[in-house]
Amino acid sequence: MHCWGFTKQHTLCKNNCRFFVCKKHLYQPFILIFTLGNIYLWAIGIYGSFWSKPNASQEDTQSIENLINKRFDEFKVPNPELDTQFPGFSVDMVIRLKLQKENRRKYIFDLAKNPDHDRVSLYLDADNIMTFQVLDKNGETYNVKIPPATYSFNKFMFLQCDYGFTDEFSFLRLFINNKFIEQYKFKFKITLPDDYKEHMILMADIFGKNGTAMTISHFSLSKFVFGKTLRRGIYNTTRWYFKQINKKIYDDISN
Fold first, then answer.
1. Interatomic CA distance for residues 95 and 162, integer angstroms
2. Are 175 and 81 in contact (CB under 8 A)?
């Protein structure tokens, strides 16, 4: 019988053979089998993508979809008519303060090139009153103060400190666990250095002294102040994160 193999000129081989192909084209049946197998697997994959049912139940799939949608909803850009975002300075952190009775300031953070002006600080004073303070370019002091009864020692809290400004006014404000605590407005604008991150000290003043005993589990800062929608989204996402890794912190900052 004649060989069924193909020559390089794409014509049937004319050699005589005992089976379907001659020795010269013995490899060609294996190539054909391999090619047909790949076509079959590709077809099965296409079918599975469009018509097969997922292993997860519909309830599981819906639960995952709802969780993803919730995360995206919380990070949508705020509606300008309902929410306002300001240039300025914002810090959010998850911290736990330890009670200290030293008669001095105990700095949580301090930011300045010069200690006498253009300075932003958060500290506990000698009476453990939490003070968020700004010094303007002339060294004048503006601050927000909240008493120890407003927060708790030895318990984690989600603390947000904002300094924002417009052409007409500036403000300082504090939030604990996404609850508004205090705000102070004034009619001037200070300018922080562009490289302010390089001049920020945590758990001490800018000289590395007057520290406070505390635990920091989360810290971030930005050069603008969030509106309430995005701020709530950051708070909820931070809670969701700690719910996965530390139930104690999650419980503390959820109250």
1. 16
2. no
Q: Which fold has domain 73-253?
A: Jelly Rolls (2.60.120)
14-16-18-23 Cα dihedral, nearest 10 degrees = -70
Only one residue has tokens 């076509």, namely 39
C-alpha to C-alpha distance for 60 and 230, rounded to whole angstroms: 28
Domain ranges of the chain: 1-52, 73-253
C-alpha Rg value of the chain to the nearest Å: 33
What SS3 class is residue 196? helix
Q: Which two tokens stand for residue 114?
A: 């010069």
Q: Residue 37 is encoded by which pair of tokens?
A: 């197998």
Q: What is the mean pLDDT of each run of 10 residues along the chain (255 residues)?
A: 62 67 61 58 47 48 54 44 69 93 93 85 94 86 90 94 84 90 81 67 91 92 83 89 92 91
pTM of the full structure: 0.65
Q: Which two tokens stand for residue 102?
A: 């030293």
